Amino acid sequence: MGYTENLIDFIGKSTDCYHAVKTAKDRLDENGFTELFEGDKWDVQNDGKYYVIRNSSSIIAFEMPKKDFGAFMICASHTDSPSFKLKPDFEINADGCIKLSVEGYGGMIMSSWLDRPLSISGRIVTAKDGKVETKLVNIDRDLLVIPSLAIHMSRDINKGYEFNIRRDMCPIASEKNGRIEDIIAENVGVDKEEILGFDLSLYNRMRGTVLGTDGEYFSAPRIDDLQCMYSTLEGFLNSESDDNVTVFAAFDNEEVGSGTKQGAKSSFLRDVIERICNNSETYKRAVAKSFMLSCDNAHAVHPNFADKSDGTNRVYMNGGIVIKYNANQRYTTDAVSEAVVKYVCKNAGVPYQMYANRSD
Fold this sequence. Notes:
Elements: H1 3-13, H2 17-30, E1 34-36, E2 49-54, E3 58-63, E4 72-78, E5 83-93, E6 98-105, E7 118-128, E8 131-138, H3 165-168, E9 172-174, H4 179-188, E10 195-204, E11 209-211, E12 217-219, H5 223-237, E13 245-251, H6 268-277, H7 280-288, E14 291-294, E15 321-324, H8 335-348, E16 352-355
Helix pairs in contact: 6-7
């Protein structure tokens, strides 16, 4: 398969943050990486390849050089995407059917979730014989739908509509109570009484596709930020350094501010780097010489809404990698990091573009 087809396959397997980490873990295992656990003692060797997972939803992988290292070269992205999460007590008896009570996660275009096949994925936590265990769930079939209201009952729907999650975005699931719980339990091979906790989300079942008269575009759910997660993972796996530790990092909860124990604002990256360094002096010297790319998506000029883009700092689909700039540091670019990325792109023959938001 080509790059785009591999990306679409990666997105299709990564139905939520937990499965995104599982998909990355499988690629790392294929390439000879060893899993480390935060609660164990580490023995990191020169020329070794390792990865660490926190909360099943964030992952950091690193490859050691063959000799002593000077710095860390890091690419970071995020594993989560906007979705709807199931509430703890999620069944609602409606008129003639069971619908599910959900809560919005992150910012999404709600109308894009209507009238299309959806399903449920995430993780459950079980307890049996004194043992607590986490299991991944993916109901791999068309299971749910959030139906829109017919235009006959909402004549002004095309004039603009403010969606209410509680009223408008509850998916239809069944005609019987308890069926969703049964299906989840069957999916992971447990009795539903064993399930004591869960983090479950809806996901769009539609597979990504290549389109355009010459196949120049692609469309898929969860491009933000699985496109960058896939790109940085493949770049990491195909990179090498004689002098530095190369690092791939993908964090959960970017869509809601990154302030969790597994988010980018947590101690996760620092904890891993400090343990690689073994002592404070080595850590501080290495960090001072390190470089990190923060990788997320950028907005190309929308052909139907071109006035939404900045007059000069506008980017175009298939126009190359985007370097995003913001005076208030909402993006991390400064003159030094801009110059480094441009230098790398020029040497690699990769086109690049500069992006900034409209000033208003």
